[in-house]
């Protein structure tokens, strides 16, 4: 399937990044990634190595020892690998292991000191960096994070829309507030914009509708979490799907009047 994340051409198909919320074990990472590659629908692999958790005591990520697992998955499948970074040390570790794409998580985008620390360590390095929107609907923080990375000289900076947090029960884990990513794209027309239906929905049954809505609105693709045993995932169990369910979901998406 023809699809690039940067320098997108008019005919490029939507880009898809998938993989587990968290790397848990070597076997889980390798099996998930190989089954994803077998779908033929995925252009990049993801896994959280360091997990920002709301409260202490939960699984906070496997840490640096998970990077070689993901690297191996990338080599076995021929797909680029993407990892969330929140500190300068995370960036250094990712670069040392040849991680192909970095992304800045929602909690980090909301913290200018952290974004600046990441930007500083990336000065003089060319690696694609995707910036998730901050947790709360503050567009200027998203804009500012992008600016800090661009000012450090990074040429490939992209955007991920993961929805916005609100207090209390809503239909979404993080409300999409579509006008905000659309305004972001208006200001940065040359940057790829992906949607993250997993963290918007927080559940499986609405993933398709959100992924489809993103394509309808002109997004460049999606990042969707997948796991070989979603119910027993160590993080975000409710929203993850198996690689095969992902394949069927992607297959049914309509893009420019055709299924993907
Ligand atoms: C994630 O992608 O696993 C993640 C932690 O996402 P967010 O930063 O959007 O909450
Ligand atoms: Mn997650």
UniProtKB/TrEMBL annotation:
Keywords annotated in UniProt: Coiled coil, Transferase
Annotated GO biological process: chorismate metabolic process
GO molecular function: chorismate mutase activity; transferase activity
Protein EC: 5.4.99.5
Enzyme class: isomerase
UniProt-recorded name of the protein: chorismate mutase
Organism: Hymenobacter aquaticus
